[in-house]
Amino acid sequence: MRIRIVDAFTDRPFAGNPAGVLVLDSADFPDDRWLQQVATEVNHAETAFVVPLPDDPDADWALRWFTPKAEVRLCGHATLATAHVLGGSVRFRTRHSGILTAAVAEGGGITLDFPVAPLTAIEIPADIAPAIGAEPLSVHETGGNVGDLLVELADEKTVRRLEPDMTAVAALGSRRGLIVTAAADDPTAGYDFVSRAFFPNLGIPEDPVTGSAHTALAPFWSACLGRPRLTGLQASARTGLVGTTLRGDRVLLTGTAVTVIDGELHG
Hints:
Layout: E1 2-8, E2 17-23, H1 32-42, E3 46-52, E4 61-66, E5 71-72, H2 77-86, E6 90-94, E7 99-104, E8 110-115, E9 119-122, H3 128-132, E10 138-142, E11 148-152, H4 156-161, H5 166-170, E12 177-183, E13 193-199, E14 204-207, H6 214-225, E15 229-234, E16 240-247, E17 250-255, E18 257-264
Parallel strand pairs: 2-3, 4-6, 11-12, 13-15
Antiparallel strand pairs: 1-2, 1-18, 3-4, 4-5, 6-7, 7-8, 8-17, 9-10, 10-11, 12-13, 13-14, 15-16, 16-17
């Protein structure tokens, strides 16, 4: 069985966020236990599995995503990776996030059409600062299929220097994880805001580039900066750029991807 490893939200190998992609020729998904075993073996933030939907008028493929520990409800970088493998313009039917579309963007990138994650401002929890080692300016809960805490920090330098206590982050509650963000220090740097994302409860201490997080980051920063179209830099060790365009209750996420491994899965 053919398997690809694709680096998403980057234009060069060994950057962005790697995802496994398996295009299955079966009429339905294999057993969930097998899907999880494959994702655990691949051991990247997500592995995407797709099966064709020849009789579905609204979608071309059914899509699911698994981390090394669990199935997730929404994943941006593995969707981008899958669209890259399939050729760019494609419609996906998902179990929890409805129909997601991918289209070839100007310059050869791919644009994903995702639902916006609604934001709810909350009182800053007392355990956030000790967990991340920095004082938040604001904290929001993210709804929809994201379910993270979005934490605004003072500046880009603070975001980049964070060394969170992963045990403390994992103990913050039943949420998926934690997104930290700040405005770009230099408005001419080619991006408008920075972020990092931590999901220790899913087996992902730090996610390199998180497309789904940008469904919350886009409305947050569009409201702060007064513009619907922005660029986010996820400031992990691998880094990656995500273009965001807010359109009502939808957000367009644009990025590029490169295949770094194309091989055979035996199992």
